[in-house]
Amino acid sequence: xxxxxxxxxxxxxxxxxxxxxxxxxxxxxxxxxxxxxxxxxxxxxxxxxxxxxxxxxxxxxxxxxxxxxxxxxxxxxxxxxxxxxxxxxxxxxxxxxxxxxxxxxxxxxxxxxxxxxxxxxxxxxxxxxxxxxxxxxxxxxxxxxxxxxxxxxxxxxxxxxxxxxxxxxxxxxxxxxxxxxxxxxxxxxxxxxxxxxxxxxxxxxxxxxxxxxxxxxxxxxxxxxxxxxxxxxxxxxxxxxxxxxxxxxxxxxxxxxxxxxxxxxxxxxxxxxxxxxxxxxxxxxxxxxxxxxxxxxxxxxxxxxxxxxxxxxxxxxxxxxxxxxxxxxxxxxxxxxxxxxxxxxxxxxxxxxxxxxxxxxxxxxxxxxxxxxxxxxxxxxxxxxxxxxxxxxxxxxxxxxxxxxxxxxxxxxxxxxxxxxxxxxxx
Length: 427
Fold this sequence. Notes:
By secondary structure, the protein is an all-alpha fold. It is globular, with a radius of gyration of 21 Å. The protein contains 17 helices and 2 strands. The N and C termini lie far apart (80 Å).
């Protein structure tokens, strides 16, 4: 009997996820013996920074390993750097924020590292099962992080709500994967793309695609799968909210774009109209409800929902230009949201009220630097020219118009004008 031959593994491809996983294990172990939260924070910061350097050195590589189920390419490196950058900023925000919360630093920083490891797997997965594994590693870590402030009832409530609704989303993902496998005979995206038949597509395959939209819609907080977002963002520690609003959303879109624009591109005519409706609803509901909020974290939660709608516009367009516009918008959105939530966390560190809009009245006089910074980030989130948020929306709407989605582009522009009108009225 011949010995079973194991597949050749290119270990270069797993350097980013390997380093972040080892960092998570190290932080969890040291948390048992080291009581100095600042030391653990610096260790997490150094570990993530070294991983970012190693990832940059891998730029330009195009490696496929584990029998074609995991890839390190330019797309994966872009998202890996985005996740690591968000992780570094969150750690910097957390080093002083954790002092007044009583959250165990070793557990906290270890879970942040594991969450980033799961995100990296999601960005590199070219197989639906590998994608599922990465999503679960990320999700379980973030479930725990959302409830890390154990003495706060709303933090516990946020974790429970996020976990229960996330479990339903996971179920939809698994059912969708099972149906797609039943219709195509494969979990690998390249083989799924090759196995997609001509029109009409099998009903089993369409049902599987619809379930994937539900699962990814939950992760990116798209309407009508957004109901968890305001409560979880408000209840979680502010630094965890920043991680969810930026890195978790980016990981969801990393998987969303790779699966739908690579593996399921042959069904674009079938799923694009459904996403058209979801994108329009997400932009509109997010913007309208954001205007009614008095809590800053809830307002930023609805803002996050609205921005997911803008990115979905690019996904609907579906060509190379639209894909590039989506990546640029994600990058800009990450800077804007991290900055805004960084200001919220900084005010919390100073012992000041930091969650209602009234608490920000006169901030420019009390703390001028934070006031100016918050103003810039909020104007950019609104899309005021010449800030980066305006450029991101311009690229998104240009891609939509180029591909003939005129009505969707007009809906996006009207949503942006809604925010401009609101800002003018407030002034």
